Amino acid sequence: MFTEFEKKLDSVTGYKDSRQKYADEVLDNPELFPELIRLCFQTSNKNNSKACWVLELVCYEKPEWFQEHLDIICSNIKNLTDDGAIRAVSKVCLLLSTAHFKKKEILLSENQLQQITETCFDWLIKNTKVASKCYAIRTLHLLGKHFDWVHPELKIILEKDYINHSAAYKAVGREILKKIK
């Protein structure tokens, strides 16, 4: 049985206004947030990527809402397969890492930090779209301030893969390599 919110996700499109409309609905109705999380990681659901798009926009506004759901999020990010879902959740990983390390709005456990780190490295070395790789690079840069082994590994990957990637990847790679040298 589909919930009313789940049915509404059918009409979400990739346009920012469309995604924002449903993010606003969740922001106005916080009781929808757990359902949004559930839909994001229900990979058999045809709208899981749309739920991830909405989740990304909610994360910009209310990162603190994620605190009690971090175990579910961090343990399931590795299971995403849809490119659109991965792109959105890779951005969520960056936003959550920023909220943890820089803004102190949430607290990620050691295990959660490790899960994000492993998944970001997976996205970086697998055949993932460039935007997801760029968010993963930025997230790993932040995580490397906590895990001393991350920056050396990230540097190796960036230097090895640099020549084979797009201008966007190269720009982010250059920026992060300057910061970690």
TrEMBL record:
<dbReference type="InterPro" id="IPR016024">
    <property type="entry name" value="ARM-type_fold"/>
</dbReference>
<protein>
    <recommendedName>
        <fullName>Adenylosuccinate lyase</fullName>
    </recommendedName>
</protein>
